[in-house]
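Recap quiz, item 2
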Amino acid sequence: MTAITDRQKLAYANAQAADGRVNIEFETDQGMTLNMGPQHPATHGTLRVIVKLDGEQVIDCEPVMGYMHRGYEKLTEVRTYPQVTTLVNRIDWLGSFANEVPFILAAEKLMDVQAPPRAQWIRTILFELSRLGNVSLFVGDMALHIGAISAAFYALRDREFVLNQIEAATGGRFHPNFDRIGGLKDDLPKGWIADTKACMNKIRDFCDEMETLVEGNEIFQARTRGIGVIPADIALQFGLSGANLRASGIDWDLRRDQPVGLAWNEVDWNVITHPDGDSFARFWVRLQEIRESTSIIDQLLDGLPSGPIMAKVPRIIKVPEGEAWVATENPLGEMGYYVVSKGDLGPFRTKIRTASFNNLSILPWVCRGVLVPDVVTILASLYFILGDIDR
Amino acid sequence: MTPLSSPEIAETAGTAVEETPAEVDELRQAVVAELTAELGEQLVGSHIRNGDDIWVRVTREAWRETGIVLRDRGGFKAFEFLSVIDWLPSPFGKNEDSPTDAPPEISSEIKTGYAGGDTRFQVFARVHSLPRKLGITIKVDVPEEDLAVDSWLPVYAGVNWHEREAHEMFGVSFNGHPHLVKLYLPGDFEGFPLRKTFPLLARHVKPWPGIVDVEPMPADPAAEGDEPATDEPATDGAATEASPDAEATE
């Protein structure tokens, strides 16, 4: 068990507000058991974490989930392929469009259909917009969990601009259901490109604001630096992905390393990594990725090819027999679908690999030996959406 | 307003997609060759889709060893997921058929996918390699009378929750897993929801909404003159049911 440093004590002193949110359930002879959730604000939904304590230090913790398990893997077996996108929209509800894309790509792979270039580019743009909508909320949310309330309001304000753009293009703020096998439902509306570029400028300003408001904040740094360190090999073993993996110094991004036909390889951008692997690194990587995303969207808007948005696909979609795995770099990390088809109208079996499920499974490992308020920091910095865990 | 793409961009995009299969195919062949060298007889099936993916099937005894070989010698250090496939066709169909029609014929023939298989249940897992930039799907047959394989917990720590999920959803045990309790479901839940034999009760209680609204199409006035046999609109349910019967007897 690690010794408590002075800095950790200071961090604890700064965390009274966070500590107040933890409700004490009962006390036993061997230490104490705390019950966080299922309505805890740091749990993004309904996650319950049972924490065993020795004084202020966590001996062990166990996340309890399933409060909103919806059985999507079973439901996909009684739906047709186009109907499944409606379901998977609800997995990570902050970045809905990004959930549709890998499923549609898996079906296209089995059918040997390729969407036309314009559709792929618009898919990529909407994918990155959903990343902005998701991760910009994280930046405010993480500060909120640590006790800085105002940052969350800035995040909600600026996220609204992104949601407006998604709504203008797709018709849905949260659940676009816009992706089709072979292309997209519709083309972009008039004036959308200019509006989106203006929106990207606002998001870049938001990043500057967050850097001065949150990242440079002394209390924020004290609460996050050196807290919840995940070494690179452990991160890989647990199957961490996305910004959590890159914050442990691993240069791995599916957008660059496993191209699935979308347009990321057509533009210049960087994979952001951080060597520390602590909560601060995870925050920093995500904040920088927002910036990269705005740059990706700007370049894609400039080079958007013209042409059709829909490939020739039959009206009633039957997917040939086979198995396909497609994973993409979603806002929360690697999300993939393993689709087994038997040549029917709907999938025979769909395994949905979500990022948050693997990302959260490291929580018991990383929480051992930390202080109570740091559990909140770690939960916030791992960043999960309960819909992404409970599927 | 929309800037037109230069033809070069479209061209490079097209060639990039076409080039990759031939290039990475050798990489994937090499992975299978390596595994065959390490496992020998224990590797019972493999399938490669050029430029896309690898599937291998190993014996139940070699399941954990395969994981160790992949992690330590193959460089597949990153774990992605573990789950189970139930290859039995669902005895309930899709529950999308009309409640009045006879249920469709459902075969109970078990037909497995890539890399073959002999049993109804198959555990499958996926790992990937960062330096090689490719992933691999490993399958193992699990006989129905003894639904158990060795746990991968000593190999990939992240498999913990995946095995717990597979255990509660399919009833497959993982030997050596220290805490194989329910992850999502309540503790007293009975049955294994993701098995094909587990009915999706919501569909049985209430018919699929798209089906109950279906009414016979009104006769097309243009086609009416051409087809004198079917121009009589059905007035009640008995008439619609009688006509297909009459046709069948003829």
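The domain at 80-358 of chain A is CATH 1.10.645.10 (Cytochrome-c3 Hydrogenase; chain B).
The CA atoms of residues 225 and 280 of chain A lie 5 Å apart.
End of item.
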